[in-house]
């Protein structure tokens, strides 16, 4: 296996290009200037789409060099909302979705048409909002769309502000969406943040930022309905009992073999690793908590080979690499890369 190149989005005006060796060693290759707060990256072929969280822009870069991670800025548009935080492209490659969190302004989901150069255009963009609020006055004063995700020709929107998971039919001709049934409510004040679908089980998982839980749902055959199955805590009891600690789950990922679900605990500074069981009454059970070796894990991901787990610690400004043993389901610390300012997202090239 040769070195693999990946990019790191940040909370500053930089994207870092790094390499991961076959032995799990990390190396900084170069630093690319970008708009402030490149907190979500989306790669499609030779293009990189970037959500600039702090300036409400979407940048598109050409990937000039996949080995060194060199980029050239091609296009910049408004996100048509405040605090863009999640991006996705539909299966036809015609529509580009943006979730605007709305930290100090408008929260919405915007669908931009992609032109023949695969660049998003503001003209004919479709803007969708969600009404309501949650019980937490500091974090749920209005809708806060936190994730957009295309799955099986539907558009899923996770809204932290209204405690809802929203499923829309999607028209790939004009970009219009229509809500299917009622909005799916989580526990009041849960603050849902991100969701993920299991690749070969009819299961979806949702992590809740404000009450440190994870929900499990069963997906029906047409993928347009979710049946609630379980809620499980992400925290250890001793951390929950420690009144000095505040915790905010951020990201969730499945292991490459689909055996385990991982959720990051920002505050407790660990990843909770859940067993995925066949028991319908308890799909998830806690296997262990893995020390992140840093502070405030905003994001983590497995490399394309499935051998390594990379953890981005936002407040300690470091990146940590663990090896993953599929046979035992265990992790071993391999390496660490320091002085990566406010790492928040990663994509492999």
N-to-C SSE string, H for helix and E for strand: EEEEEEEEEEEEEEEEEEEEHEEEEEEEEE
Q: How much helix is in the residues?
A: under 10%
Task: Work out the count of structural domains.
Answer: 1
Q: How many whole angstroms does the radius of gyration measure?
A: 19 Å
- CATH topology name, in short, is Methylamine Dehydrogenase, Chain H
Rough shape? globular
List the helices and strands and how they pair.
Layout: E1 4-10, E2 14-20, E3 26-33, E4 38-44, E5 47-52, E6 57-65, E7 70-78, E8 84-89, E9 95-100, E10 108-113, E11 126-128, E12 145-151, E13 154-159, E14 164-170, E15 177-179, E16 184-185, E17 192-197, E18 203-208, E19 213-219, E20 226-233, H1 237-240, E21 248-254, E22 260-266, E23 270-276, E24 284-291, E25 297-302, E26 308-313, E27 318-325, E28 330-338, E29 343-348
Antiparallel strand pairs: 1-2, 1-29, 2-3, 4-5, 5-6, 6-7, 8-9, 9-10, 10-11, 12-13, 13-14, 14-15, 14-16, 17-18, 18-19, 19-20, 21-22, 22-23, 23-24, 25-26, 26-27, 27-28
Organism: Rotaria sordida
Family: Belongs to the cycloisomerase 2 family.
GO molecular function, one term: 6-phosphogluconolactonase activity
């Amino acid at each position: 296996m040769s070195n693999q190149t990946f990019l790191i989005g940040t909370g500053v005006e930089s994207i870092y290009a790094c390499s991961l060796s076959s032995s799990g060693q990390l190396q900084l290759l170069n630093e690319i200037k970008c708009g402030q707060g490149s907190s979500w990256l989306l790669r499609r072929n030779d293009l990189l789409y970037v959500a600039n969280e702090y300036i409400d822009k979407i940048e598109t870069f050409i990937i000039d060099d996949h080995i060194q991670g060199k980029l050239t800025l091609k296009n910049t548009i408004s996100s048509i909302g405040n605090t863009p935080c999640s991006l996705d492209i539909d299966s036809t490659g015609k529509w580009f979705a943006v979730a605007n969190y709305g930290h100090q302004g408008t929260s919405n989901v915007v669908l931009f048409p992609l032109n023949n150069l695969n660049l998003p255009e503001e003209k004919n963009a479709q803007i969708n909002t969600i009404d309501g609020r949650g019980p937490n006055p500091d974090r749920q004063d209005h809708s806060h769309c936190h994730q957009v995700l295309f799955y099986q020709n539907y558009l899923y929107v996770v809204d932290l502000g209204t405690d809802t998971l929203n499923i829309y039919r999607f028209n790939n001709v004009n970009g219009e969406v229509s809500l299917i049934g009622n909005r799916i409510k989580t526990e009041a004040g849960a603050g849902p943040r991100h969701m993920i679908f299991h690749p070969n089980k009819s299961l979806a998982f949702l992590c809740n930022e404000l009450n440190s839980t994870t929900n499990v749902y069963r997906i029906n055959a047409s993928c347009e309905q979710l049946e609630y199955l379980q809620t499980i805590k992400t925290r250890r009891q001793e951390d929950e009992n420690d009144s000095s600690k505040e915790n905010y789950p951020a990201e969730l990922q499945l292991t490459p073999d689909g055996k385990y679900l991982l959720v990051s605990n920002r505050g407790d500074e660990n990843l909770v690793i859940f067993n995925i069981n066949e028991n319908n009454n308890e799909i998830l059970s806690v296997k262990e908590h893995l020390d992140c070796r840093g502070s405030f894990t905003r994001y983590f991901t497995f490399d394309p080979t499935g051998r390594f787990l990379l953890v981005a610690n936002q407040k300690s400004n470091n990146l940590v690499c663990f090896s993953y043993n599929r046979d035992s389901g265990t992790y071993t610390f391999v390496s660490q890369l320091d002085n990566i300012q406010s790492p928040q997202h990663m994509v492999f090239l």
